[in-house]
Every structure is written in C-alpha cells, then in structure tokens.
C-alpha cells in the first residue's frame, strides 16, 4: 500500500475517573461475594484507575435492559465524541466543514441514525461529509478504521477524522451468585470508557500511514466474544487468548515491516494494545522488546484500563505528544480482538 496520508492531530475525552481499589472495596467485593479468586484477579489486571460514565457505586445499571443501555449510550457518547473531535480539530487547525470523511468506531452501542450522523450534525460538518461506521469489531477496530480513513485521504484527497468511542461501563452484568464466572471478573476489572479521535490529512506534518496487515485465527474464534444479551453485551474472554495470539505476532509484524524494507530493530515506537498484562508480556517476549518499548502501553493500561478500540488511539496520542518522533521513524501499532484477530499498522514520522 502506497499512502501519504498523515495523522496530524489527536483529541481525547474521558468520563469521570474511578479508583480501581475503591471500586473493589465499595462495590465489586460484595458483587462477587468476597470471592478470593475474584479479588486476586481484580488486583492483577494492571489497572490503577479508569473512567466510566456509569459508576456502579452510585449508578448500578446491571439489571437494565439492552434497550435502556443503548439509549444511555447515545446520551453519553455524543458529548464525549463531540469533545474528543473538537479537541482534535483545534489541534489540527481544521474547521468542521473541512472534514471530508468522518469515521466512527464502536462496539459498545448502536443507534440509527448513528453517532456518525448525529456528531456530524452537532459539530456543523458539511452535508457532503462522507461517513463510515465501524461496528462490533472490538479492541482492534481502530486500526482498520484508520486504514480506511487514510485510504480515503490518499486516494480521494478527503481530509478525515476517526473517532473511537467505547462505553464498556454500560455493560455491567448482574451479580453472579456464589460461583462467579472468572471471565466476567476479568471483564469487570479490566475494561473502561474513553473517546479518542485522530485527524488524517492527504499530506502534511505528522506520522504517515504506510501499511496495515491482519491475521484472523478462525479456529479459535470463540475464545473472545462480545455477545448481545437482554442485559447488555456480555464479554467472553478465555485465558487461552494470549497464547493463541502469540503464535501470530511475529509473522504479522515481520510481514508489515518487510514490505518497507525494515526489521524489528528499526522500530522506534511501539503502540501495543494492552488487552491485559499477559497480552503485553507475550508480545514483548515474541518480538524481543525491552521494558521501555512497552512502557507506554503499560502506563495507559494502569491509568485508563482497557478502553477497547479507543486504547490504541490513547497510546498514539501519548506518543505523538510526548515522544521525540524523528523524520521517518517507524511506529508500529498492534491490537487484538474477537475473531480471534490481530491487526498491525506501520506509521512513519
């Protein structure tokens, strides 16, 4: 893929912060009947604090219907999305009417008309703005969505904005009784809410989107699931996921880099989706990465939790704002999700 589209700016919006230990002590300890297995998991997922539109200590929606949760999703996602996009446009020095394509990715809520239409309306984008909605791809959705936005910029000259908005707190599940499902414990302990946007121009300053690769292991598709139920969406997250994904990491990254004449040692910045501490560990081991290479991923996990598709953009935002990105410096972004799917993108400073 030959692509000169560049990521020129980012914008982040976060709901109120929640302390991980306080969440356990004040709510989830009772929710899981003080099960010691659940408590061990809770404190081992690498999260110190996270954000949520629904704080279960004061706003327990675990018995809400899916319809109620979807209506709440729109009410909460619109202001967060507007804030993230507005910050992004300000940093990019773009007016809303200059946006030629708006791409919105989410797996935590749906509405028709969709967020893409409602946000374009609220932000004053042109009636000619083209829109793309990327739904239910899960944690890796930011990368194919970024590829589509960059392709539109490179092939058709359309300045684009990509928004990932995920409100996982709206899918809290009811108390499980005396024998809780440990996969649900992980989901409740790990996942968080965020809105993150990036602006993509046909050319200009900023990391250039070079190429994207993917791997889908359909034989293990059911190890990670996001099932629609009458009580919201329910996560299925097998402990086998890190080991299965680790079998595909090296091949995907080497394919991505070889196409540009690069090797792993050439990569200056790594944006690894922190699906959990074990995911970061196996990726670092497989690729031979030191602690510094995955530091930002661990920091984002500790400070924000796993915000599904928005997480990669949180990491990219931090790299773009805080790192010294030199001309041509390779950046590899990698994320994982249902399918069982791995996506990786190469950007160059």
Characteristic key phrases:
5-stranded mixed β-sheet; 2 domains; Peroxisomal Thiolase, Chain A, domain 1; 349 residues; globular; 24% strand; 4-stranded mixed β-sheet; 38% helix
How many domains is the backbone divided into? 2
- Give the CATH level 1 class of the largest domain: Alpha Beta
Helix-strand sequence? EEHHEHEHEHEHEEEEHEHHHEE
What helical percentage do the residues reach?
25-40%
Radius of gyration: 19 Å
Description:
The protein has 349 residues and is α/β, with parallel strands linked by helices. The chain has two domains: 6-201, Peroxisomal Thiolase, Chain A, domain 1, CATH 3.40.47.10; 208-348, Peroxisomal Thiolase, Chain A, domain 1. The protein contains ten helices and 13 strands. The chain has helices at 20-31, 36-42, 66-92, 115-123, 142-156, 182-190, 241-258, 277-287, 295-304, 310-322, and strands at 6-13, 17-19, 49-51, 101-106, 130-135, 160-167, 193-201, 208-216, 224-229, 232-237, 269-272, 330-337, 341-348. The strands form four sheets. The chain has a five-stranded mixed β-sheet with strand order 1-7-6-4-5, with helices on both faces. It has a four-stranded mixed β-sheet with strand order 8-13-12-11, with helices on both faces. Strand 9 and strand 10 (232-237) form a beta hairpin. Helix 2 runs parallel beside helix 6 and helix 7 (241-258) packs across helix 8 (277-287). It starts with 5 loop residues before the first strand and ends with a strand. The mean pLDDT is 95.
